[in-house]
Design goal:
The protein is mostly helical and about 1050 residues long. The protein has 18 helices and 12 strands. It comes from Corethron hystrix.
Amino acid sequence: MRLVSNNHTHEQVNAHLTNSPNGLVNFLQSNCDNMEDEENSKSALSVPLSKPKGFVELRSSSQSSSSNASMEEQSIGIPVQDVSISSTLPSSSDLAPPASSDLEDALIRVSELTKKYWKAQEVAEKERKARSFLENELQQKHTDLTKERAIREMLEIDQATKNRDLVALQANLKDSQTSSESHLKALSEQYESEKNAYGTKIDDLNTEHSQLSTRLENALSELDKSRQEISKVENVVTEKENKLVISQVESERYREDLKSKENLLEQSASHKDELQKKILMQEAEKKIFSEQLDSANKEIKHIKELLDVSETKLVEKESAVNEAEKLLLQKNEDLNLCQSKFTQQQEKNKIQLKLLEEVNMAKDDFEKKLSDLSSGYSVLVDNFEKNQNELGKAKDEITSLHKYIDEIESGLKEKDKDILLKNDELGQCRTEMDDMRAYHEKSTVILRAECKALEEESKQQISELTDGNKNMKLFLNSLHQKVSDLESESEGFEQILSGKEEEYLNSLSSKDKQITDNELLISKLQKEIECLKQLEEESKGKKKEYNKQLNEMTTSNDAMIANSQKLLDDLRGSEEKMRAKVEEIKLLKTSLLTTEENLQKKDTELVNFRGKICELDMSYQRNVKLLEKAEAEKIENEKKLSKVELDFNSCNDELREVRNELSGIKVTVMEKEVAAANLLEKELRRKNEYLQASQAKLHKAQIENRRLDSMLETVQKKEVELVEKIGNLSSCKMVLLKNIDDLEQKAIDDRMIIASMEAELEAEKFPQESTHVRIMILCERVNDVHKKMIQSISGVLVHRVEDAPIATHVIAGNDHSSLRRTSKLMIALSCTENILHMDWLAHSARAGKLLPCKNYLLLFDKKSEKEQNIVMRETIRNGRACRRSGGLLFGYSIYFCKGVAGKSSPPEHELNLIISSAGGVFLQELSQDCYPENTIIIASDPVTDNQRDEPNVEMVAQEGNGFFTSSWLFQCIMTQELNFQVYTKKSLSTPISNRKDAKYSRSRTGSLSCAISVCSIDSSKSGLTRTSRRTYS
């Protein structure tokens, strides 16, 4: 395989190489295009043009035809752009290979040379960059040198000008010295005469200057004080403006919260209206259903009356039939026909009774469905009654309806029982009828046999009598002796026969009459049977109508059941919604509590802010007075300065006059002047120094006056700014007053809403013996027995400390364990008075209802009362009074110092629950705006230095109630009585004797009313189960 084809020679390759590297690339590319057309080519030459630095890479692999040896790939990097080839590029003689050798050595040389070339180019580029960098540095240095030269030239020019000025000054000094020497002699005499007067004037000026300086110092000190006061006022104003902005933001937040709460209340009212509408619809449907039930009951009563009438008629007819059967002996066949008809009628009656029984069964199923619906509805109503007082009325109406339905059901059951009894009686009657029929059949058979036997006997007797007569007639002639006897016997016998014949004839006549009567009765029975058939047809039509009505009733019942199911689903959804709304209402109540507390805080802040505004007004008036005084002093200082300037001008005029006079006086005696010249020069030097000092002082005084002027200008500017700020403050006052009025109106509206919600909550509250109670057990571990007992009285078990404020019944003692001071018990004492014995739960579970709590209060546990130092009767009484007035700690804020919570007292969240349940406020930190009189600080015993060093603790303790311990607080909660006389330990800086006895002598059993405390909603919350048992001393 050859790298190039046979058409190109080595000379052409050398020519291309000598021309340029790009020519070599073109040459190799043309060869590569020609070689790609060949099929047996195994070498490839690729020129990728995507090199990032602008290079083209050529790869080639060749194989010689003689030795079949493979060569390694060679890559040649050649720039694509036009590159100026320097002298380092090899010449054609270096690149020309021998004629008989391969091109591979040439290519290797070319690659090495190109690498050297590009390395040389890179080195040259680096040298160029270094040269350019050095040239730039040289240019910068040249510019710096030119600047330095210019500065030097300027300095030289300045020095030359200064030297010229110095020469001129020296000349002037020489001239002045000569002139001064000429004038000093003349001035010396006059100067001595005027020296004393000028000294007195200078002394006066010095005294006035000292007075002015003292006044200026006083004015400056007063200005500094006024500046400090103004800065303080500005800081206070900025703080108040920030507080105003914060209060405005909070008021906007509260407005948004109130709007959202109003929207929620409107939504809840709309939901209430919808539920009331649904209830009204249900009541209307119930009324319609009750009317349908009444109509069905009326129809059932009418049918029952008809059945009673038919039964009475059947009884009468059965009696008549029995009598007819007794009487009818000959017409049994007709009677059998009548009996067959009667049996058919009885079968029809049985069918009717079966239909009635099916109707009763359907009615029972319907009543069962109604009972199921009523039970489900009663459950729904019970659940729904928990949330609304109006639904309580609906529940009463529903219970009355249920009572009415129960009465109807009981009446129907009694009627069903009566029907069953009557059916039993009818069955008995039917069995008796069957027995009577069997007896009548047997009796008829016996009577017929007896009649036949009598007829046969009579026939036999007649035959015997006829035979006897014949024999008698035959033997009359022979037996005359026995004729008399036989005649007497025959007469008696004949009499007997005649009587029997008469009786038989009478019986036959009576039987004929009975047959006629029976025929009449049969006709009547046939008529009555026709009437019964008509009645049966009518009853069939009524049955059809009744079946139609039943079908309609069943369809309507199905529809009612579907509607009731839908209503149940709706009621369940509404219950869930109502529960969610109740939770939202609870959240709203809590938020309202917080808003009220915030409003109270804001009211107090506004009162404080008004007081601070009054103080600012007073301080502003004081500052205005001080500014007026400073202006008056400024005017006086200006007057004095004007006087000093006038005096100084007069002195200068006098000096000028003296100089003019001295210049006018001629020198008479030169010798005296020469002698006195030295002295005069010394004195003049001193005077010149004194004048220079006085001029410097005057210059300083002028500078100070300028400073004072600038200070006055700044003070005037600040006055203008203060006036503007006062205007802004007045506008802010007006805005605040408007906001206060709006907030007061909103507070009144909120209080009205809260009062209405409280009324609703009080209406929604359950009584003390309600089925919805929340029970907390403190004396024992809760087990399944306790849970079953609580479920038997439909109560709810409460475990957690967080749920202790909602517990309505707290079981804190039994026969084995006594009362213990735990966080749950302290929370419960602040929230409920039902602190009970375990017997209450056991007895209530036995009775199956809630027993009154008065007989089960823990009032006789003397041991625990001695241990805890309490009287349980008094604590319950005090707790009741405190709950009426908002709680034991209502109006107080409690702060726990560091190191108190968690060691000898409960953790922080339990302390927060204890204080909030007692109506107090748990402070996370003390602020300067808090009221010391209403703040209680709980510290360790003794108080540590770290606790005293906490921010604002020492100040609040000195100005307020001092330091107290957690045991004192827990004892107050256990007794439900705040007694500051028990523990009067305060800080060392504030003795106890300085405190007012009125603050500490009161025994707090109540405060202002607060209906929205945690304890007032104790029966409307639910709790989860999680035990927390811990005792604290």
